[in-house]
Design brief:
It contains two helices and 21 strands. It is mainly beta. The strands form five sheets. Strands 9, 12, 14, 15, 16, 18, 20 and 21 form an eight-stranded antiparallel sheet that branches. The protein has a four-stranded antiparallel sheet with strand order 3-2-6-7, with no helix packed on it. Strands 1-5-4 form a three-stranded antiparallel sheet, with no helix packed on it. β2 and β3 form a beta hairpin. The longest helix is centred in the middle third of the chain and has 18 residues, at about 115-135. The protein is globular. The two termini are about 20 Å apart. It binds zinc ion (ZN). Zinc ion (ZN) binds near residues 155, 171, 173, 175 and 252.
Length: about 280
Amino acid sequence: MKRLIFIFLFLPSCCLAGSLPQSALVPGGIAKIAVGNASQPAPKVFYQGRRILVTSDHSSWLAIVGIPLDAKPGPQKINIEHPEGTSLVNFTITHKQYPEQRMRIRRKRLVNEMNAQDLARIKDEKEQVRKIKDVWSDRPADVSFCAPVIGRWSSLFGLRRFLNNQPRGMHRGLDIAAKTDTAVLAPASGFVIGTGDYFFSGQTVFLDHGQGLLTAYMHLNEIAVRLGQTVLQGERLGTVGATGRATGPHLHWNVYLNQEAVDPTLFLPKGFPACHP
Ligand code: ZN
């Protein structure tokens, strides 16, 4: 029965105008590009060799392209495969300067004093996550999101981080601060494609919402779902915690499109409505 409800929920989700992510033609943003008339079969779209999510707004098929955080400003192109042939569409990425963030992590083992065992674990986990991010499922994507936790946005997406004054990568998710054990709810329907306790991200859940739209929930205190499980929007994934490398209880939330981390706030409708159980 649950499966039936799930299928029913997935079908219309491709075509709900107004619930589509916002476009932002910057590194870490999203390009939303019309790629054909919705009365025709959906085309296949590729960007940098990777398959791209295609959804519809009633009248047009739209490609929803994740722009890499390290993309250089300038012209880019997507390839479109129609039954009658292939075509190209160009778009232009503009510069965005993300602010710096400086943090102190007291447990030095989490910054630069890892032992050989830690380093082997980190390497292994990186490979596991790479495989998870490679997941592609053909069904219509559920792009209609609500906010998984309500709380203060304590670190925005894209911050250029310095941990104990050492430059680190950019912040590839959104941090939402909330009390330990606050419920974390699924922002859209999907499948659980990964769960685990990772060195940096602590207790983590990965969801597949279809066509390369993936989300991740990190530093959880508890995980409430199993690998392979179907979840509906608003279903409990776990609770907020501070496991892994965290300075306090918060949810670190990632959204991936075509394996690229994009700004999760672009997926939240105006007013950032909370998910309801
Ligand atoms: Zn974070």
